[in-house]
Amino acid sequence: MAQQDRRGPQVLNIGEVLAQLSDDFPGMTASKIRFLEEKGLINPKRTPAGYRQYADGDVERLRFVLALQRDQYLPLKVIKDYLDAIDRGERPENLPPGVTVSPRVVSAEMAAEVQGRARALTEDQLRAESGASVPLLESLLSFGLISHVGGKFDEHALQVARACVQLEGHGLEPRHLRPFQAAAEREFGLVERAVAPLTSRRDAASQARAAEAAREISDLCLTLHRALVHDRISRMDS
């Protein structure tokens, strides 16, 4: 008779966690894991001496958080809101399409699915998924609204193309949309200046804080922009 495996749940130190994440997230560091803990995204157990002990569930939860941040461009606050709600037994309705999560743990299969969202699209795939015509894509490229690397387009290009297809239906062509590119560059300049004190530091935790602050500032800028435009629109029928 085979001897029964009496080992309990696997306990990992931070170096072993990094080793498991390094293939999918090569820039991951111990300081960034601690930063995510500081933000409440994970909560590893501690020994009486204060050393962190990570379980397999902590690793998969980290993998899920990092994939959503990288591939869905979600700020940590939004991701934490999702996880907090699910940990309470709720099921948020506004998760990204196809994304689900179990309380406290994220399966490796689901994490792989989320990571798969960081796709590289050919021009044919971009046209098929956005509904854009060849002339429209050529115009978007010529006006700098989308770009490619080695003939491959990313999810940002897909989002832009989809929006421009809809705008084309309202008579707005890429040549009319160049101010959006200029405005985006000005907004990025504002964000870049705001987070400069953090980006000047080279440690991973500061870089993670800078990226998170940049996302938050960008969201606030978009909210301000939307409110100002909607204010003007509301006056049309007053």
TrEMBL record:
SUPFAM superfamilies in the cross-refs: Putative DNA-binding domain
Keywords of the record: DNA-binding
Domain of life: Bacteria
HTH merR-type domain residues: 33-85
UniProt xrefs under InterPro entries: DNA-bd_dom_put_sf (IPR009061), MerR-type_HTH_dom (IPR000551), MerR_fam (IPR047057)
Pfam families, per the entry: MerR_1 (PF13411)
Alphabetized SMART domains for the sequence: HTH_MERR (SM00422)
GO molecular function terms attached to this record: DNA binding; DNA-binding transcription factor activity
Name of the molecule in the record: Transcriptional regulator, MerR family
Species annotation: Paenarthrobacter aurescens (strain TC1)
Taxon lineage: Bacteria, Bacillati, Actinomycetota, Actinomycetes, Micrococcales
